[in-house]
Write a structure and sequence with these properties.
Distance between the termini of chain B: 67 Å
Mean pLDDT of chain B: 89
Structural class of chain A: alpha/beta
Strand content of chain A: 5-15%
Number of strands of chain B: 0
Largest sheet of chain B: none
Mean pLDDT of chain A: 92
Order of helices and strands of chain B: H
Low-confidence stretches of chain B: none
Number of helices of chain A: 18
Oligomer: heterodimer
Largest sheet of chain A: 8 strands, mixed
Number of helices of chain B: 1
Radius of gyration of chain B: 23 Å
Radius of gyration of chain A: 23 Å
Largest interface: A-B, 50 and 40 residues
């Protein structure tokens, strides 16, 4: 084959890398059933301080503190420290009411300077918590999350193994009356948390301790200098990496369920994910000497871990490159273009089928509740293209010539779906645009939205935009756990 | 001293509490093993679908 054509074929196939790696990740999650940290866990109830950073969280903070104190954990071994980051709403009143109601169990700490972001507030809280020898473990959470009764016990049991420095739980989208976007997020978390973190546990390297639920042993925090990183937008990921690079394990506990309120609209989600995306770019640069070095250590330096990290990070570029290469192939060798087109989309189809079916095994509750969004996660157009590729491959019917406009549309969809997802976000605030926004997101797919956010995050990083912390607004909507 | 030799704070010796932790661990282990079986079944189901498609195409 002509080297140019061969190169184009390879680039087109990059468009199928993400679903393949995603499926591999979900398949390996099953191994967690045979290989997990449970057998090294034990009866362990350390004296725990829950550090809750709060900036204008009046809508949620009271219920969160009440729920924490009502958890199935010995009352004399649990304290809640709310770090009030100079809130201007009724947050201090809500916390002080709990301080009076639960003497000695709730602490209100007002930071010296507000609005500097979560990491700074956390550091003030950590300094206060660690200054008292009482604390044997510290649980860092978000102000809006709600822990199930047995969640903390299920996390502390792993600290019975002194090699474990930190434990995280399974964050679930928990709006009582979720909109379509919350159902997409719930489905995303099923893959990105319940499945991916199990796989990372199996591979021996965790990518991120969830910001809403990370339990640290005192020894681990002291080894990290008693502070968390403030130089990036991904302080949770940096803490996770530093813990493991210092020789301690970070463990994912799927039975430790934590319910969280996620953004209700695309604009809020965009802001949140830009922060996450930029944080991941910063982490990638910071740990350049860690990636793909399986001979130095397992886990973070492993090939599979690196492959899954970079596939997520580079997926938008792969999709654009794949679409462009396919369009070029269509122009110069349309016979080869159709073969590769079918190969890419059939790979997508097989992975899609596996991911949708697996969801019902990984978390039946979420899968049953959000199956429509799961089926339409890649977008209605992509699902139709998968069906078309399957019919074409099996029967040879519905063929179109290389010069037909439909052929160009099909070939370019992997790139143009991101533009449609971006348009869905832009239309959301336009007059009468909410319906169109929703329709476009179902057409382009939630996955395409995540890709275009990542792309925007690159651009912001390249432009050196401000590392400003943009708070995700919480409305205190009822959660499933309540 | 390696991390493995570090004394563990919070270890519980009360037999009832130890038994409760063990019961929770066993229950969660069983659930994880069910996940392994379920994933294997789903993988098999997808492979069967692919095999059928390939067979139909060749027929």
């Amino acid at each position: 084959m002509d080297p140019l054509v061969l190169s184009l074929v390879v680039v087109v196939m990059l468009g199928a890398l993400a679903p393949v790696v995603g499926s591999l990740q979900v398949a390996l999650a099953g191994i967690h059933g045979l290989r997990n940290h449970l057998r090294r866990s034990g009866a362990c109830l350390p004296r725990t301080v829950v550090v809750v950073p709060a900036w204008n969280e009046a809508a949620v903070i009271g219920a969160s503190v009440d729920r924490l104190l009502a958890m199935d954990y010995p009352a004399d071994r649990l304290r809640v420290l709310v770090v009030d980051d100079c809130s201007t709403d009724a947050t201090p009143d809500a916390v002080l009411e709990r301080v009076v109601r639960h003497p000695g169990r709730v602490i209100h700490l007002r930071t010296s300077e507000g609005g500097r972001g979560k990491a700074h507030a956390l550091n003030e809280g950590l300094a206060r918590a660690l200054a008292d020898e009482w604390a044997e473990a510290v649980l860092i959470i978000d102000a809006d999350v709600q822990f199930e009764d047995g969640t903390l016990r299920r996390m502390t049991r792993h600290l019975a193994d002194p090699r474990v420095g930190a434990v995280t739980g399974y964050i679930k989208e928990g709006s009582h009356d979720p909109g379509f976007l919350n159902r997409f997020i719930a489905w995303e978390y099923l893959d990105a948390q319940a499945a991916a973190r199990r796989t990372q546990d199996v591979l021996g390297g965790l990518a991120c301790l969830a910001g809403g639920a990370q339990l640290h042993s005192r020894a681990n925090l002291e080894a990290l200098g008693g502070r968390i990183d403030t130089s990036t937008l991904a302080e949770d990921t940096v803490t996770t990496f530093e813990t493991q690079l210092a020789g301690r394990r970070a463990v994912f506990e799927p039975a430790a369920v934590v319910w969280a309120e996620e953004p209700p609209d695309l604009h809020a989600l965009w802001k949140q994910r830009i922060r996450w995306g930029r944080g991941n770019v910063q982490v990638t640069r910071r740990y350049l000497s860690t990636w793909f070095r399986p001979w130095t250590r397992r886990g973070l330096s492993g090939v599979l871990f690196g492959l899954s990290w970079f596939t997520v990070l580079l997926q938008p570029l792969f999709m654009i490159a794949s679409a462009v290469a396919l369009l070029v192939l269509l122009a110069i060798r349309d016979d080869v273009a159709w073969v590769v087109f079918r190969a890419v989309w059939l790979t997508h189809g097989v992975c899609y089928l596996f991911l949708v079916l697996s969801a019902f095994v990984i978390d039946r509750q979420v899968a049953t509740r959000c199956w429509r969004e799961g089926v339409l996660f890649p977008g209605l157009v992509s699902v139709v293209i998968i069906g078309y590729a399957a019919v074409q491959a099996v029967t040879g019917a519905w063929g179109v010539s290389g010069g037909h406009p439909v052929a160009w549309l099909l070939a370019g969809w992997l790139a143009s779906c991101m533009a449609v997802a971006w348009l869905a976000m832009r239309l959301e605030t336009a007059r009468g645009g909410r319906w169109w926004s929703r329709a476009l997101l179902y057409l382009a797919g939630y996955g395409s939205f995540l890709c275009v956010v990542t792309l925007a995050a690159y651009v912001r990083e390249l432009r050196g935009s401000d590392n400003r912390w943009e708070k995700t607004e919480k409305r205190g909507r009822a959660l499933l756990a309540s | 001293m390696s991390t493995a030799d570090t004394p563990v704070p919070g270890l519980v010796t009360d037999p009832a509490e130890v038994a409760r932790f063990a019961a929770e661990r066993d229950e969660d282990s069983r659930r994880e093993r069910r996940l392994f079986v379920g994933q294997a079944v789903m993988l098999l189901a997808v492979l069967v679908v692919v095999a059928v498609l390939v067979a139909v195409q060749r027929a």
